[in-house]
Amino acid sequence: MHTAHIIVSSLLALVFVISGLAKASGNPRGLAVTREVNVKDGIARIVGVIEALAALGVVIGLRNGFVQWIALVVLWVIMSGAMYFHFRAEKIKSSFPPFFLLTLVSIALVTI
Predict the structure, then answer these.
(1) Is-contact 111 5, C-beta < 8 A?
(2) Are 101 and 79 in contact (CB under 8 A)?
(3) In the 8-state DSSP scheme, what is residue 90?
(4) What predicted TM-score, i.e. pTM, was given to this entire model?
(5) 3-class DSSP state for residue 38?
(6) Which whole number is the average pLDDT over 79-94?
(7) How many domains does the chain have?
């Protein structure tokens, strides 16, 4: 189970650091999805910074379980919020990526 946790956590860290930095940099491609669901660019950039920091916390947490638990809970809340905004904007089909990531974060939380 420990090996599966390391693999899932590493994949999550990679995805969230790429996604977070793309949003935080203000790159139009990184902000495209957030614009589709009517999230202001400033808020999306803050979320991007939080995602990138949480990804760093997931990596650091491979040595310290409490840090990883906090980082994963932050990512869980962000992905729950992303699903909310997708449903609010009636973009049901585009809510699959946040749902999938929410599921992976839940698996990582359970396997700590």
Answers:
(1) yes
(2) yes
(3) T
(4) 0.91
(5) coil
(6) 91
(7) 1
Residue with tokens 């990883």: 68
C-alpha count within 13 angstroms, C-beta hemisphere, residue 55: 19
Burial class (CB in 10 A: 0-12, 13-18, 19+), 28: exposed
Rounded Cα–Cα distance for residues 72 and 76 (Å)? 6
Residue 68 and residue 101: Cα distance in Å, rounded? 16
- Tokens 């396997």 locate to 111
Q: Which domain holds residue 72?
A: 2-110
Q: Do residues 72 and 109 touch, judged by C-beta distance below 8 A? A: yes
Digit-coded pLDDT (tens) for 50-68: 999 999 999 999 888 889 9
Residue 26's Cβ-side half-sphere holds a number of Cα atoms within 13 Å equal to 1
**Cβ atoms of residues 101 and 77 within 8 Å:** no
How large a percentage of the chain has pLDDT more than 70?
A: 99
